[in-house]
């Protein structure tokens, strides 16, 4: 383990007043949860998965995932100007 990471863990264990094993487990859980979220957002943004699948990968409800995507400004709905115009015309009944 790099010295820098070891120092960070030592500082955190002192701050949190937990033993090193518990603190490392806690840090890993946070990191893994963030990895799931980031991976889901990236795959969604690239159009490789559906919104529902992304929420599943992130281990969040659909509403929680929608909030996350909004917070991180992830665009996942893509329409061309022509598609928007066509939908607008069809919706107006013209």
Care to describe what's here?
It is a single chain. The chain has 94 residues and is mainly α. 74% of the residues lie in helices and 0% in strands. Helix 2 packs antiparallel against helix 3. The radius of gyration is 21 Å and the shape is elongated.
List keywords for this structure.
elongated, mainly alpha, 94 residues, 5 helices, 74% helix
Classification by helices and strands: mainly alpha
Q: Would you report the number of β strands?
A: 0
The arrangement of helices and strands along the chain is: HHHHH
What is the count of structural domains? 1
Strand count, sense and barrel status of the largest sheet are:
none
Q: What spatial form do the alpha-carbon principal axes imply? A: elongated
Q: What gyration radius follows from the Cα positions, in whole Å?
A: 21 Å
What is the beta-strand fraction? under 5%
Tally of contiguous helical segments: 5
Task: Outline the low-pLDDT stretches.
Answer: none
The end-to-end distance, rounded to whole angstroms, is 66 Å
Helix content: over 70%
Q: Write down the overall mean pLDDT.
A: 88
Task: Please specify the SSE layout and strand pairing.
Blueprint: H1 3-16, H2 20-45, H3 51-58, H4 62-71, H5 81-92
Helix pairs in contact: 2-3, 3-4
